[in-house]
Amino acid sequence: MDKHRRTFLKRAAGGAAAAVASSGAGAFPRREELPLPPNAIGMLYDSTMCIGCRACVDACKEANDMPVEQPAKFSDWNQDTWDTAEDLSGRTLNVIQVYADGTKEHKDEVENGYAFVKRHCLHCVDPSCVSVCPVSAMIKDPDTGVVTHDRDACIGCRYCVYGCPFGVPQYEFHDPFGQITKCQFCIHLQKEGRLPACCDVCPTGASLFGLVEELQKEAEQRLAAKPGEPYVFPRGKLGDDKYPPHEAPLPEYEPYVYGVTESGGTQVRYLTGVPHEKLGLPEVQAASFASIAEGMQHTLYKGMIAPLALLAGLMYFAKRSTRQDSDDED
Amino acid sequence: MAHASHSPLGGKLLTKPFLVLLIFALIGGFFIARRFIFGLGDVTHMSGGYPWGIWIAVDVIIGTALGCGGFAMALLVYIFNRGVYHPLMRPALLGGLFGYTLAGLAVVIDLGRYWQTYNLLLPWFAQPNSVMFEVALCVMAYIAVLWIEFSPAFLERFGLTAVRDKLKKYMFVFIALGVLLPTMHQSSLGSLLLVMGSQLSPLWYTIWLPLLFLVTALAMGYGVVILEATVVTNAFALPSEQRILGRLSPLVAWLLGGFLVLRFLDIAYRGHTGLMFAGDLNGFMFWLENLMFLGATVILGLRSTRTNQRLMFLASILLLLAGSLYRLDAYLVAYNPGNGWTYFPSVPELMVTIGVISLEILLYLVFIKKLPVLHGVRPVQSH
Questions:
Q1: What is the pLDDT of residues A200-244, one digit of tens each?
Q2: Which residues contact A1 (CB under 8 A, 6 or more apart)?
Q3: From the candidates A22, A95, A155, A180, which should be mutated to test the interface with B, based on the most B CB atoms within 10 A?
Q4: pLDDT at A85 over 90
Q5: For residues B14 and B250, what is the distance between their CA atoms, to the nearest angstrom?
Q6: Distance CA B38, CA B254 (A)
Q7: How far is CA B82 from the centre of its chain?
Q8: C-alpha pair distances (Å), B344 with each of A195, A272, B44, B47
Q9: How many whole angstroms separate alpha carbon B269 and alpha carbon B247?
């Protein structure tokens, strides 16, 4: 091996080693996390207020023109009456699930109790689905922060389905021309000045629409107040009097607002009476996964300068080798 | 430098293995047709929890690694200027050609909105932060580069030596791209998983994923070259390449040794050693992978292996199984979306994967018989 080649290869290897070594030492540069958008809108879902009526599931289907789901195993007691979707799917953007234990006597208790949870897009502050999409089909609104999907851009690679830490985006596997489906916070209704269907229909205010910062204050207020004290629960939209509020004694909450830190934070937040992992809300680290993946990619590629430099070096050596080749070939 | 002259193997095309492979390819084709008529759900067990099945994990993630022979050998022959390995270059490229081209085909079958695939090339849809974007463009470009790198075999076959000589002048550009592009996208196949976070077991999830994937791609590339050279020289009674392979084996042993050291040190450094002994499926798969890696490393590192075709063959099989399992685990087995989702491929889904692999081997056989790919072929027919 000649000297030039050796130096180049040494330097190339050294550069790569340095890049990875710095990451191994914990100094790995993550991409800066995205901040909460200026007019971030969101939802506060209070699991203790939810009575499991599924009116939100029905309203969601109607608002988004989605088909009713009735799994065969429930057909003997439910024929063409209720939507009995069990989980999110290509046909269901919003679902109510239930935690149940033992005799299921007490609401919002872990032992012999039950609790409801509503699952749909959490509209992450720094969404994985937007970061992973190769064709910009997932878009986060820079003003409101709502994450929407453009099916005309989508190639159906389903990386968003695979990568979402909350299991939200779904693909219509039953359709030869399927598309990705996810809750888009009823932006089509919001454009007409209406509320997202689930918050609009919720009879108890368990699904409460509003500005994220105000919803967060509301959540903290509920956590700070004394359990059992009467509390006025708003309905529909926080700070709006379209629907009258209702008064009820404050439940005993888990002292945690889910969605403040999870994967860089989400615009939908949860208050629960049982630990969130019992409700299928996964334990997720605070650093956004998008910032980790993009940070690594940007470190390795340095805006395509690193690959171009490597290419130049490779061409130099390939040229030398092939010249020697043709000198003594055939 | 002694140089390779390549010639077609000749012989009958319609052999028994050919027909068996053809039947499997046709069965796969039947289910591919069903996929396009009735949708992905008709043929596969993919779901909202497991939106990627074996078509991605096996056909693409493992398939392209098995197609890294051309990449691995080009690095050795042209960048490190080790001309002795030149006879292995063309068959390695051919393996890469089919590994990658058919992985591309598998992607199109798997894409949920395949008719919009060209959006990847439209600048206004581009999303350069997406690892998938980089992988997609890189793999597309590399498939083109592989066909160009392999094209001298066609040009020689059809007597277009003038074109070949002209192309040869610029070949260094494609050789360089043929090393750069796999370096980029094979490491990115590891980076694709960085966004998985807690959905992937810490025994696999690490910021070193890009490097670990790049190393396994190179190692599997050499593994395929060793396997292919051993099988083909035996099956068609060609002069053995054992002398060259013997020189290659310690190099691969070093590469694998480095992989194992990095992997174990990293897991220990992150404090997840306990998961190796958790006694669950992940722990079992972890040991299965690494013991096979270790087996391959030890055998390839032994001096006596260099002259022993059987050991060499065994080591390459172990290496390919270990590398394939590592990738399968990282993409499917050790991935857990939670909420009770499970996945096991359906029979039709498996038949598509088997069909694609059969087609790959079938085309390889046709090409080495009809095109000047192999080195040291004795002229069976009149020349």
A1: 999 999 999 999 999 999 999 999 999 999 999 999 999 988 899
A2: B80, B81
A3: A155
A4: no
A5: 39
A6: 49
A7: 22
A8: 41, 34, 9, 11
A9: 34
- Stretch (H or E) spanning A169: none
| Extents of the domains making up chain B | 6-375
Residue-wise pLDDT for A152-189, tens only, equals 999 999 999 999 999 999 999 999 999 999 999 999 99
DSSP-based three-state secondary structure for A218: helix
| Residue in A closest to B38 by C-alpha | A176
User: Do residues B241 and B233 lie in contact, with contact meaning Cβ atoms separated by under 8 Å?
Assistant: yes
Residue A285: partners with Cβ closer than 8 Å, 6 or more residues away: A262, A263, B197, B198
Pairs across A and B, CB distance < 8 A: 219
For residue A89, give the DSSP letter. B
3-class secondary structure per residue, B178-196 = HHHHHHHHHHHHHHHHHHH
Nearest-angstrom CA–CA distance, B252 and B88: 15
Quickly name the fold that domain B6-375 has: Formate dehydrogenase/DMSO reductase fold (1.20.1630)
**Span B32-54, pLDDT tens digits:** 999 999 999 999 999 999 999 99
Cα distance from N-terminal residue to C-terminal residue, chain A = 23
Neighbouring C-beta atoms of residue A117, cutoff 10 Å: 22
Q: Can you say how many angstroms the Cα of residue A145 is from the centroid of all Cα atoms in its chain?
A: 12
* Sequence ranges of the domains in chain A: 41-290
Nearest-angstrom CA–CA distance, B47 and B380: 53
A41-290: which CATH topology? Alpha-Beta Plaits (3.30.70)
Residue B351 carries which side chain, given as an amino acid letter? M
Q: Which of B78, B112, B196 is opposite residue A171, by nearest beta carbon? A: B112
